[in-house]
Design a protein that fits this description.
The chain contains eight helices and no strands. The protein has 356 residues and is mainly alpha-helical. Helix 1 runs parallel beside helix 3 and helix 2 packs antiparallel against helix 7. The chain is rod-shaped and about 195 Å long.
Amino acid sequence: MASMAKQEITVSQLRAVNYEYAARFGHAVAARTHEIIVATEDRDVVLHALRWRTWAQPQARVASFDQDPLVALIELWILADQQHQFFTVGGGSAWFGAQQEHAQATTLALRQKAEALMADTMTPDALRTIQETKRDWVATHPIEGKLVSRPTARADLANLVPPRQSGTLRAVPSMQESLGDMNDRITILSDQAPTEARWQAEYLVASLFDDRLYGEHLDTVVGSLERMTGFLDTFEETAASQTAAIFDGIESERVMIFDAMERERAEILAAITEEREAILSGVDSQLSTTTSNIDEVARGLIDDTTAELDGVARGLIDHFFIRLAQFLVIVALGALLFRWVTRRRRNAVVDHDRTE
């Protein structure tokens, strides 16, 4: 959820709110136009009421079907405001004579309901920002003619919503959500299309008594009625077949997508397996190379250490024998000195005896 919408409402919930309000919009207008027709004998008022009824429901449905539910809600809000303006100060302000106030009350109630939905959906700051811009936009973009053309805000939505907040509820829906929304729209169309076709027929029948319809115009109206009757006879079957075809197409597309995903997954797993085997083979090769290098280095170190130890041992042995030789020389010299001293003493004793 983005900054314009409140956190507690989801995309699916807002779509459901839009669809429910659009249906209420059409029902409220239909109920009011029925009361106006029953209460008047003015043929122009009847035609205006019938025209309003055939116009309102499709306009609300188209607005609610916008892909972005926040944009759809803004469109419904603007539609309700434009409709109320049309029947108060616009081209339809005198359409219903004595019943005009009742039409204005209905359009006002629809506008207030749309404003309440906006308040429930958007944050207060965002609502204040867009409310001021919307008021000026509606004043300069009224409904044209006799409900002939209604300017929509889609082209100018960037002026209604700040750029950093535009499209705040856009999201990538899941397949289940998309199918659910499509089913809701088909259900709404299936329910409303026959009713709208009948309303169009009633409007055409009422227009037959218009003095301006004669000759070719009358033939055109009769042809339209015949085509509409044929459409009503075949619509339900056509809608059912189209719905079945759509869902069959979606199902086949879904199967194709899952098959493609399965093939892609298998290819990815195979590529990962090959890459893993290549990595492990490389690691084994590196380990073998590293092991042989370690062995060579170890042998070199052992050989060098052995040579050094041999050299040290030989040095120690040589040193030992040198010391031993020195010791033996000292011992020999000591012995010679001892013999020489002993011989001198012995000679001195002999000479003394002779003297006496």
